[in-house]
Please model this.
Amino acid sequence: MDRQTLSALAHAEHPIAAPLGDPTVSDLLNRAIRRPDAHLLDLGCGEGAWLLRAAQEHDGVTAVGVDISGAGFEETLADAARLGVADRLELLRQDVTTYRSARKADVVLSIGAAYAFGELLPALAAARGHLAEDGVVVLGDCFWEREPSPELRAELEDGPQKYADLATTVARVVADGWTPVHGHVSTLAEWDEYEWSWTGSLAAWALDHPDHPDREQVLATSAAHRDSWLNGYRGVLGFVTLVLRPTP
Ligand SMILES: C[S@@+](CC[C@H](N)C(=O)[O-])C[C@H]1O[C@@H](n2cnc3c(N)ncnc32)[C@H](O)[C@@H]1O
Model:
């Protein structure tokens, strides 16, 4: 089974691909959307769950989501049609680093997708390029809640993106010319819900498909992820979502 299909299965019960509960997502959107006709852009939108929620809960907003994968787009657009908001939601399968639009966004989201740009500051630079005057950025990314073991650090920092502690992460954002007007640090309960949902959805699918050729692979993926979480990053890796406005 390819990674996209695995990821779609893993997120079946938690369409937001980050450790954030539903009330948190709504609260962050409420804080970021400052005008009824706001235009939203989500860079690395996953299946588009944030934008579907925004369109559902904010009558006049329009939204464009960009993701290189496109997994889940069809289902999200079908949900949007069912909810009567399809005319306000567009999902584009494209690389965010090459995405260009003449239309500036009042809210630019990038949740758990900074790695697409290399790391945090290039992601913010891209967001700034798409942002309307007086716009708001909602940026979600990992940080080290506690000092990781060298093995864990090596495992989770295997790409260009390196994490820092919360204070250092926020200080880097502020030094880059942003003022946090709100922030949410994911609780352990939000992490646990996300990780149980991720590993549990895969495990349940495998048990429900005993004759499927990919059953063993799916079970193994679930078990490996659960092990890496429970014996590794649980309580050590944090996730912060910042609501940011450009510092004048
Ligand atoms: C952890 S998921 C977060 C998805 C979404 N923001 C959410 O909170 O539900 C990261 C997403 O970034 C996307 N991504 C990674 N690199 C990308 C790129 N170069 N261009 C567009 N999307 C990218 C992945 O396909 C994935 O859907």
Notes: The mean pLDDT is 97.
